[in-house]
Amino acid sequence: MHALPQDHTGTRIARLRRERHLTQRALSELANIPYSTLTKVEQGAAPASPHVVGACARALRVEVSTIQGQPYADELRADQLDVLIRPIREALDVYDLGPDPDVRARQPEELHREAEQLCADVRAGHIKNVASRVAGLIEEGTTAAHTAQTREGWLTLASFYRTAYDVAAKLGYPDLAQLSLARLDWAAQRGSDAVLGGMHHYMRALSYLRDGKYRTGHRLVRLGLSTLEQAEPGRERQAVTGQLHLGAAVLSGRAHDAEQAHVHLDEAEQIAAKTGEAMEVHWLAFGPTNVRVHRVSVLSALDQYGKAVEEAEKTRIPKGWANSRTSHHYAEVARSFLWTGNLDASFESLLRARKAAPQQAKYHPTVRETYAGLEAAHRRLPNSFLSYGAWLGPSPAH
Fold first, then answer.
1. Which of 184, 223, 249, 338, CA to CA, is 20 to 30 A from 8?
2. Secondary-structure percent of the chain, ordered helix, strand, coil, rounded to 5
3. Which residues of 142-179 are buried (b: 16+ CB within 10 A; e: fewer)?
């Protein structure tokens, strides 16, 4: 049984296009993408790159998540993850109600440890475990912050909100991710933390990156860099500044602005040379490895897949690097190998993405799109290929 033949990105683009009474030629002109590319994507003969998905979403005036089919409801239901989303929404909604008399909050030190553990678990790829805990911790952190009215309390609550954002973004709930970021900003302002403010703008920029709105993403990067100027100089500020440049590099790559993409990559590389591997700074994994990983991502976004593969083959992931970042990297590498025609290497990279962080990989749009592309090419692939498709989940037709 194949997993994704009935409902892939191309079929969704075609369905949305027909609903708007547009021809393929008309959509290709509105989206400013080649007609031949659009026809191949709709037919399933070629996978849809992030640039194509973003361009079609803007032209069709829909969310990128709609084109990608997120959230993947059937799979979330099968994994019992869908029932964890509503409690998170409810916990985010009581942010301004003050202390809850029915909630007994633990000491600040204990809640801070919980916040750090959640961040660690997200980076380890334990999405379900985190999703099951974060709503209760937000409620507890909300009561603690309102009761104590201390900087530490507000920053711990901001960290819980950040984790809610991570869960929502990884499971394909962009509206919940945006709401989580709004709450993070609210708490960060009360904690008067300029670095966290800069991070908030970085994560907002990533939300617009995922939605194909690159111009707005760049504006948020600039705002984040400006906010960081108010922070105390030091390694923490440098790491977040470098991460903002990496975000800007990918935004430029998706917009096919190669010059600006490399300017931001070079800036991040210079900062990383000063900070070294700064994985512990706000769990961003910033450092030389992250710069190299982002260079692969940027080259892929620029449709320079051969160069992306060359860069990937030179990149070594250090022991102890975040599983979530490792999985994301191999998903990007798999796409680049697919576009260069190396199907075996592409599938091997998908296996690596799954091994590093299975729960994240299962709900990663790039993993699914690459699998669909491999399925379209379906030749010279091992028997384990179809079992990978069964793991991703059955198509809606079954």
1. 249
2. 75, 0, 25
3. bbbbbebeeeebbbbbbbbbbbbbbbbbbbbbbebbbb
The predicted-structure confidence for 54-86, as pLDDT tens digits, reads as follows 999 999 999 999 999 999 988 999 999 999 999
257 CB neighbour count, 10 Å cutoff: 17
- The residue whose two tokens read 């992250």 is 290
pTM: 0.90
Residue 294 in contact with residue 261, Cβ under 8 Å?
Answer: no
Chain-centroid distance, C-alpha 172: 9
Q: What average pLDDT does range 125-130 have in this prediction?
A: 96
Q: What is the mean pLDDT of the chain?
A: 93
Burial call 37-66: b when 16+ CB within 10 Å, e when fewer: bbbbbbebebbbbbbbbbbbbbbbebebbe
Contact 271, 234 (CB under 8 A): no
pLDDT of 213 strictly over 50: yes
Domains detected in the chain:
76-192 (no CATH), 195-321 (1.25.40)
The encoded tokens of residue 107 equal: 């000491």
For residue 361, the model assigns a pLDDT of 96
Closest by alpha carbon to 111, among 169, 155, 46, 57? 155
Q: What is the pLDDT of residues 244-264, one digit of tens each?
A: 999 999 999 999 999 999 999
- For residues 259-290, one letter each, b for 16 or more C-beta atoms within 10 angstroms of the residue's C-beta and e for the rest, the string is eebbebbebbbebbeebebbbebbbbbbbbbb
As a whole number of Å, the end-to-end CA separation of the chain is: 9
Q: Which two tokens stand for residue 190?
A: 């009360």
- Residues 200 and 394: their CA atoms lie apart, in Å, by 36
Confidence of residue 398 (pLDDT cuts 50, 70, 90): very low
CA dihedral 41, 361, 184, 247 (to 10 degrees): -60
CB 306 within 8 A of CB 266: no
Residue 397: the pLDDT is 40
